[in-house]
């Protein structure tokens, strides 16, 4: 691979992925609805809902990292969020297929499990949550991510394209983590995301590891920190906030995460290295 197309390249993860790829010697084509003054590479303004624009935009790329999406079920009407996220992912993978591109990494989300934005909160079926846990969202954003994962799997079946769907937890920066630490007096604040997060540095390294890996076919991976976003020990969080979850598949040590990154570690030889505790 020499040239990588990155959609959503002006976003929090996208701009950092593009910069890191350049530092590693790759040529980058950055695609987004707006240009970024942080990037020093070819930038293309593109509407991902238009297949022709996507084909033109990624022409010449050897692989693609698709991060462009509306990142939550807020700020737009629900039908627009769903249509935008689903259509853009289909178009990116269809364009890659037409152009003979055989590697793609796409942004999925831990929201696909359904806990984060559920109007009617519910407990995990078991803990730790892993990639086999049922995906049962109650809203448009989580549903769009499930459809995108199924779309990716279809393209792998159709032409053998390797597609890795990254189920990112809440992506945080150093500044975010400093703010989050100030909220720890109320440990219920992050209950709905199972106190999970991923530092942007680790999200970037995982994304590039998925891009450069071979032989994965189609796979979805949980991309999350190894610890919780809380100063309480995990067993205490469970006893206080999830006492009804009876199927605990391991004993949690210290602040060990409730969402697993084990599969990503095994397939990508990747492990997160950043923690909110680094900011102490």
Automatic annotation (TrEMBL):
Question: Known CDD domains for this protein?
Answer: SDR_e (cd08946)
Entry annotated with the keyword Transit peptide: no
Write the record's keywords in alphabetical order, separated by commas. Answer: NAD, Oxidoreductase
What does UniProt give as the signal peptide span? none
Determine the domain of life of the protein's source. Bacteria
Output the Gene Ontology terms for molecular function. Answer: oxidoreductase activity
Q: Does the keyword Ion transport apply?
A: no
Note the InterPro entries from the entry. Epimerase_deHydtase, NAD(P)-bd_dom_sf
A Pfam family in this protein? Epimerase
- The segment(s) forming the NAD-dependent epimerase/dehydratase domain are 4-171
Q: What family does the entry list?
A: Belongs to the NAD(P)-dependent epimerase/dehydratase family.
> What is the protein name for this chain?
NAD(P)-dependent oxidoreductase
Origin organism is Paenibacillus albus
């Amino acid at each position: 691979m020499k040239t990588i197309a990155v959609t959503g390249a002006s976003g929090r993860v996208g701009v950092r992925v593009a910069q890191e790829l350049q530092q590693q010697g790759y040529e980058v084509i950055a695609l987004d609805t707006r240009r970024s003054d942080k990037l020093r590479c070819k930038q293309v303004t593109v509407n991902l809902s238009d297949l022709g624009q996507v084909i033109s935009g990624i022409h010449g790329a050897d692989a693609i990292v698709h991060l462009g999406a509306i990142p939550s079920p807020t700020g737009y009407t629900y039908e627009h969020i769903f249509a935008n996220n689903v259509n853009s992912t289909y178009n990116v993978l269809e364009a890659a297929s037409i152009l003979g591109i055989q590697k793609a990494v796409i942004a999925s989300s831990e929201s696909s499990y359904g806990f984060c934005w559920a109007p009617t909160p519910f407990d995990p079926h078991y803990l730790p949550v892993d990639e086999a846990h049922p995906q049962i969202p109650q809203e448009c954003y989580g549903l769009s991510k499930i459809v995108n994962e199924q779309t990716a799997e279809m393209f792998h079946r159709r032409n053998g394209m390797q597609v890795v769907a990254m189920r990112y937890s809440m992506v945080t920066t150093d500044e975010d983590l400093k703010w989050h630490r100030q909220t720890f007096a109320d440990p219920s604040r992050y209950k709905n995301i199972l106190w999970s997060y991923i530092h942007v540095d680790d999200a970037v390294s995982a994304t590039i590891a998925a891009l450069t890996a071979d032989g994965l076919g189609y796979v979805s991976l949980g991309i999350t920190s190894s610890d919780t976003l809380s100063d309480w020990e995990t067993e205490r969080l469970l006893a206080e906030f999830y006492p009804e979850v009876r199927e605990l598949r391991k004993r949690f040590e210290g602040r060990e995460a409730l969402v697993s990154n084990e599969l990503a570690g095994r397939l990508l030889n990747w492990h997160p290295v950043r923690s909110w505790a680094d900011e102490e």
